[in-house]
Amino acid sequence: MKRGVALRTGDSVALKEADDYISLHSVEFTDRAASAAHASLRIQGNKLSEFPDEIDLQKLKQYHAQRMSSVRADLQSFPDAFKWRELAELTLSRILVFNARRGSEGADLTLSQYRQATADVDSAVSSTFSKVEQQLLSR
Question: Is 71 exposed, middle or buried (0-12, 13-18, 19+ CB in 10 A)?
Fold first, then answer.
């Protein structure tokens, strides 16, 4: 827009500034966009080759339960934004641990959706799960 105004008014200083900005933007934007794309590609390659042991998952579940109880008790006695954030992160991490295929779903989950959730899973869907996922589902 600045370039168009400069051309119409004959302002050579503003035209040079606009051209310099466009040149700088095109060089830096390409580098930054490419860098983000490469980082995304590297993250996609970071996949589990095997599932964690059942004992480790049980320890994690116990830690979550104990820590969440402690934070809830702290919040009841002294409401604090930091504690609310910690409780939210613990809750989200507890949801995400067992939803490894679609990790971002937990972040979009609303409280009403969580309350409406049931343990019923369509057999057509559950038949596509791996043995480990079917075991987790049965629990």
Answer: buried
What is the distance between the alpha carbons of residues 108 and 95, in angstroms, rounded to a whole number?
Answer: 11
Q: Are 91 and 109 in contact (CB under 8 A)?
A: no
Q: What is the pTM of this model?
A: 0.42
> Which tokens in the block code for residue 61?
């579940």
pLDDT digits (tens, 9 = 90+) for 69-127: 999 999 889 888 888 889 888 888 887 776 655 656 666 777 787 777 666 777 777 77
Provide DSSP, 3-51.
HHHHHHHT-HHHHHHHHHHHHHHHHHHHHHHHHHHHHHHHHHT---SSP
Q: Which residues contact 105 (CB under 8 A, 6 or more apart)?
A: 99
Maximum CA extent, the chain: 74
Q: How would you label 23-49 residue by residue, b for 16+ Cβ within 10 Å and e otherwise?
A: eeeeeeeeeeeeeeeeeeeeeeeeeee
109 vs 64: which has the higher pLDDT: 64
pLDDT of residue 66: 94
**Shortest CA distance to 72 belongs to which of 86, 93, 60, 58?**
86
Residue 41 confidence (pLDDT) above 70? no
